[in-house]
Amino acid sequence: MPDPLRGAVIGCGFFAQNHLHAWKDIADVQLVAVCDKDTAKAAAAAERFGVPAHYADAAAMFARETLDFVDVATTMPSHRPLVELAARHRVPVIVQKPFAPTWDDCVAMVAACAAAEVPLMVHENFRFQGPLIAVRAAVAAGTIGVPHFGRISFRTNYDVFANQPYLALEERLIILDLGIHLLDVARVLFGEVETIACRTQRVRPNVRAEDMATMLLHHKSGATSIVDCSYSSRLASDPFPQTLVHLEGPQGSIALLEGYRLRVTGPAGTTERDVATPLLSWTSQPWHVAQESVLNTQRHWVASLRAGRVPETSGADNLRTYALVTAAYRAAAERRAVMPEA
Ligand code: NAD
Ligand code: 89V
């Protein structure tokens, strides 16, 4: 692999600004091109981040640029055609969540990259958030034993629609947009899922689909977890964008509390420490934990590419997370627990 790696970003909208800042923070990556079908956004991103070339058409970019990888940070409807375009050009690709609109699209994208022998990763960054990395390490330390029960919760009234207006018009809202992150974390902490039950609610009058969901997961390990999320919770203090976690094992418990406090209770007693994410030159409260996770996720991608290793959130791995999303919607519609298709 050359050094630096020649990278390009497709999609220069709201969240891509974090991708672009993070690529600039990774020493062995050079951004050679950006692309957005909105030419003004592409030009602005090239100007702001000192990128030599910008395009409105991804096909033109692939035809003219020599790339070691491409980062797709567009919205979901364009993920499949852009990933398949990268595969046809044999360019390794990392793509934002949600992977694609349908299960069949996701399967086809994995197949296209496998056939082209092109690395494929989904930018699923919650498991790469500093506080959640601390929870994973606390579990791996073994103090509480193997987790057998837990709750993963993200409840807010923060106006996510201000930055992401498309969310209010989607047929599927909070499970596909946010639940997907929490379900991915549930897989990391408790393993693969046997069955999932789900109840959805719509509280906000100005959104098309569910803005609250409560999911009950039965894991193959025997563990039980509750995954709940809301975009319409009026709380004394709004923890946005914090994910709160409570885990129990045979020897104790682990809690990630509001304010980024990690409490571990084991046979020797209870400890508590601060696991807050430091501010970077380009991050700001309250998004800083999400922004820093973008850097961690992209560093994981670069390290995996260089080592020829399959990344944690490869396309194939993310199929399992996506299968939980589709199963949750099916469980809610059929009002019964269902098995995920992967
Ligand atoms: P956005 O609408 O602000 O930006 C998307 C950009 O992609 C737009 O500028 C649009 O013109 C461009 N685009 C769309 N199709 C294109 C194509 N075919 N070729 C070139 N450009 C194209 O959206 P956003 O809020 O930044 O969301 C982008 C993605 O990031 C979504 O999938 C969203 O779910 C995800 N997201 C992830 C996180 C996270 O990782 N924690 C947070 C927010 C959003
Ligand atoms: O992270 C995301 O995917 C966003 C959210 C609003 C949850 O931050 O959509």
Please explain how this structure is put together.
The structure is a single chain. With 342 residues, the chain is an alpha/beta fold. Helices cover 35% and strands 24% of the residues. The protein has helices at 16-24, 39-49, 58-64, 79-88, 103-115, 130-140, 174-190, 288-307, 315-334, and strands spanning 5-10, 29-35, 53-55, 69-72, 93-96, 120-123, 149-155, 193-201, 212-219, 224-230, 244-249, 252-257, 261-266, 269-274. An eight-stranded mixed beta sheet has the order 8-9-10-7-11-12-13-14. The protein has a six-stranded parallel beta sheet with strand order 3-2-1-4-5-6, sandwiched between helices. Helix 4 (79-88) links the parallel strand 4 (69-72) and strand 5 (93-96). Helix 1 (16-24) packs across helix 8 (288-307). It is globular, with a radius of gyration of 20 Å. Nicotinamide-adenine-dinucleotide (NAD) binds next to loops. The site of nicotinamide-adenine-dinucleotide has 25 residues, from loops.
Briefly characterize the structure.
With 342 residues, this protein is an alpha/beta fold. The chain has helices at 16-24, 39-49, 58-64, 79-88, 103-115, 130-140, 174-190, 288-307, 315-334, and strands at residues 5-10, 29-35, 53-55, 69-72, 93-96, 120-123, 149-155, 193-201, 212-219, 224-230, 244-249, 252-257, 261-266, 269-274.
Give a quick set of tags describing it.
eight-stranded mixed sheet, binds nicotinamide-adenine-dinucleotide, binds (2S)-2,3-dihydroxy-3-methylbutanoic acid, 342 residues, 24% strand, globular, single chain, alpha/beta
